[in-house]
TrEMBL record, chains A, B:
InterPro entries noted in UniProt: Apiosidase-like_cat_dom, DUF5060, DUF5605, GH, Ig-like_fold, TAT_signal, TAT_signal_bac_arc
Recorded superkingdom: Bacteria
Organism: Microbacterium kyungheense
Domain Apiosidase-like catalytic: 141-396
Pfam annotation, one family: DUF5605
Protein name: Secreted protein
Length: 533, 533
């Protein structure tokens, strides 16, 4: 899968480059050097929503992370887009651009280093099969869609420090993801559990706080982005978490505002051109005691200004919901275990955000002593179904291991999944994909239908923990229409036809006069689906 | 009950006034003329949180509503407060001030009419018994408290156009309120149903739109405020609704921005000094198609600037929640029937607002054909209990009458209450008053206790529609402590002692090892209360 084509320039000489990243290996940091030694004199075509990279070689002196500014202006398809670049070590600077439209684009770099001032052009071709573009929010709506219009049904997971583990461990994690239902993974830039990569900034001594926030280690970020590339090849969104409250020993999330700004701009320039990147400003932002809401607001504005690709932006809470209506937030990212216990509790979060809602943390499937990590597979799956019928989305995580330690679990380090929810989430994902695009909503949530769907087209009733033997099937609409009715066992992953129901008008709804009820198996975790025929 | 003392001045001559409004009669408009003819040469004392009124007589020419500016600067208790005045017709201007502190206050008026420039002083004495000051939000919290620290437990009702009915009908409504549990009533300034008072602005013809937004009828507002005074005497908060979407024939809520600003400033100056006034910017604000959210934001800022008394401010929605985190909002005023069906659904609205939440409309007890007006008494009461255990507040209304017409119901015009919920809401109010101040909260809402209260001190579990015969009483805290346990039948209004429970530590909570369960009657609408002894 072609991800990137690069244009490499050294000094004033255009070397050009079109190094395709075929199957990038997260085990090495060769990506940069491969690109830096690319041969093509003129850049070849780049896919729409792929990545064009300009490589600029300048002097390796002073502290380019702080001292050098570089950016490119791209012009094409009637648009002019300014794209900030970044320093990648050894005198190499890069500018990465993911073209939003096909056609020829001309570019010109500017810098406070004359050697980095260059110009060129690139042909942007139609995307190959499988490249649907970045995920976006349906305008004014509560669901997601790829840039090419394909629906995106979020089934997320979290593995905080997976990308910072050894190459072998990362291969194991990627292998697990490749057969999982998950199409988004929340992942920290700064580690929260033991990891192989621990030093985004240059060390100045042996103590935990002996590091220099004005000097980055490019290899740390190069390694992290190689994991983003691998996720892209798997069609998985990388929900990149910029700050977190758990590394109080190192204190990477406790930098000054100036250092934070430089870091945010760096990751925006470095990672933002990957079309599978989402930004999560922080995990449990309100657990970071060195920053105020004003600080977060400011950093969001810095990020927004530094990210010409306008990737999705949110922030994850501990106790205090961030105001998801703020203009720089594209969707709400909520931590709440209780909200996912009822579809309408989930739904009301949409009323607040007026944007899509993802319950990125609803506690985890596991066996640890902490209450947030001991859900059964049934409970984890139940929360996904509740958020689904609330017109929202959910996130998985697993803290299940023989030692009952969250740090070495999937949640902390990745590896393998050993729980029972993932296959059920794959089943749910198929139910979503078989349903209406871009998604479903709670229908008439102020009244007592407790039904999700899309009016006339599709209805879904989920019974959760209750185990009824029948249901008086009154839909909020649909009279005069016929529906294929299916009994879905969300845990045993079976779909059983109940035949076609012909709905007639009843007070405030529709019901089949011949079959006013639907027979149910009397077990838990059952849903009933009405699909218009 | 002494509400007001007035200082009356004509031209440059200080007549002074100290007309106490004893038992004001809403049947006449004599309040103003009584004050204007007050005799005291020097103003007597005014209670703290009472009202001092300066009456200024100037020329009755031109259009003073538009042309004349008048305001007083009050200085006392180390504070300087600028209080806008208003025109009351017949050449009379008034400035109304409710002093926040006792002691001597000096005042000086300024105006673009030289005749209205005066000065004086007033002694502010301690409040009489029953005067607790205005209701305020507990700082940083989710509950309300009077200015003197007394708890205020909101049990609201709505009667949109009661204040605009005949004097006889208003007496009937006030008589009903006097024996009801309600301590807040939502009431429109502009009528939404047939009323005796229909013309806040001067008529210019016989068509519905034949009125002049630049010319008010002071008598309309004088009549309305006489109802506010009567509510004050009953200890009831007047939730004054400034705009509403239902009078599309007259279109009072469809004025221009300039006319809206003048109207908002007028009611702020005229009504704001009554300590029982709350501002609701609109009913179903998003139903008013001639205004945008920007317009509402603007009008809130106009109101805030025009109201030195800083009365509580909110706005009521139809479908789209207004963002209650905006700084001019003091509490959320929510319309949602579905949110009041579950305590935690209600609770999450606090997470959104970070302020107190009142579900001012959750559908109404009644017998009309519209779905929003056909709750049973049980359903109305149930919604109050749900919002209570969610740490929030609720609003009542009644659409119950032989003709099944909302317009002539309590909701539309006031009168008598014929439903069955009000006595149960009085019972609930007593439960609230017997509980901790300023209020209770959902405890550990992310976990599965489903218990409200205040840690260690007080716990309340409400079973709603379910009818269990016993409950495994595990509290989220309280081990080592003893509690009086009561079984509360919220519908039959009985409290039955279950004796004292001695709680010991169990995993993640507290339970009485001798009595791990509480026996319940197996009927609906039961609550269990644990009060620390």
């Amino acid at each position: 899968m072609e991800i990137t084509r690069r244009t490499v320039l050294t000094g004033a000489a255009v070397l050009g480059a079109a190094a395709a990243i075929g199957a990038p290996n997260p085990a090495n940091a060769s990506t940069r050097s491969a690109a830096a030694t690319g041969q093509a004199a003129n850049p070849k075509a780049v896919e729409r929503w792929g990545m064009h990279e300009i490589v600029l070689n300048g002097p390796d002196k002073g502290n380019p992370y702080v001292d050098v500014t570089v950016a490119a202006v791209y012009e094409g398809a009637g648009q002019t887009i300014t794209v900030p670049g970044f320093y990648d070590g050894d005198g190499t600077f890069r500018v990465r651009f993911s073209p939003p439209q096909s056609g020829q684009w001309r570019w010109r770099t500017d810098s406070n280093l004359p050697a980095l001032r260059q110009a060129g052009k690139v042909d942007v071709i139609e995307p190959a099969s499988g490249n649907h573009g970045p995920v976006q929010v349906v305008p004014g709506g509560y669901h997601f869609v790829y840039a090419d219009g394909s629906p995106y049904r979020q089934i997320g997971t979290t593995s905080y420090s997976w990308a910072l583990q050894s190459d072998e461990k990362c291969e194991l994690t990627l292998n697990t993801l490749s057969t999982s239902p998950f199409n988004k993974i929340r992942m920290l830039v700064f580690p929260n559990v033991p990891a192989e990569a621990t030093d985004p900034f240059v060390r100045t001594g042996t103590g935990p706080r002996d590091w220099d926030p004005t000097r980055i280690d490019p290899a740390y970020f190069r390694r992290y982005e190689s994991r983003i590339e691998r996720l892209l090849a798997l069609g998985i969104q990388a929900d990149v978490v910029l700050f977190q409250p758990y590394d109080t020993a190192r204190g990477y999330s406790d930098m000054t505002r100036t250092d934070d700004e430089r870091y945010v701009k760096y990751v925006a320039a470095r990672f933002g051109a990957y079309r599978n990147v989402w930004w999560s400003m922080a995990n449990e932002y309100d657990g970071i005691k060195t920053k105020t809401v004003d600080d977060w607001d400011h950093l969001f504005q810095v990020l927004q200004a530094a990210d010409p690709h306008n990737r999705l932006r949110s922030v994850h809470n501990k106790n205090i919901y961030y105001d998801a209506r703020k203009p720089w937030i594209t969707h709400a990212s909520i931590q709440s275990a209780g909200a996912a216990l009822d579809g309408l509790r989930a739904h009301f979060h949409r009323q607040f955000a007026l944007k899509p809602v993802i319950f990125d943390e609803v506690a985890y499937e596991g066996n640890i002593s902490e209450r947030w990590g001991q859900l059964s597979g049934e409970q984890m799956t139940h929360r996904f179904w509740n958020t689904f019928v609330g017109g929202t989305y959910c996130g998985h995580g697993e803290t299940l291991n023989p030692e009952q330690k969250p740090s070495i679990s999937w949640l902390g380090q990745g590896g393998t999944l050993n729980g029972t929810s993932a296959p059920r989430l794959a089943f749910l994902k198929q139910i979503m994909e078989d349903g209406p695009a871009p998604g479903i909503n709670a229908l008439q949530p102020d009244w007592d239908y407790d039904i999700a769907g899309v009016d006339s087209q599709y209805y879904l009733r989920y019974f959760g923990e209750s185990a009824p033997t029948q249901w008086e099937a009154i839909l909020p609409s649909g009279s005069g229409l016929s529906y294929q009715v299916d009994i879905i066992d969300t845990w045993n992953m079976t779909i059983t036809s109940a035949g076609v129901y012909n709905m007639a008008k009843v007070p405030r709804g529709a019901q089949d006069p011949a079959r006013p009820t639907v027979a149910l198996p009397g077990t838990q975790w059952i849903a009933v689906r009405f699909t218009r025929v």
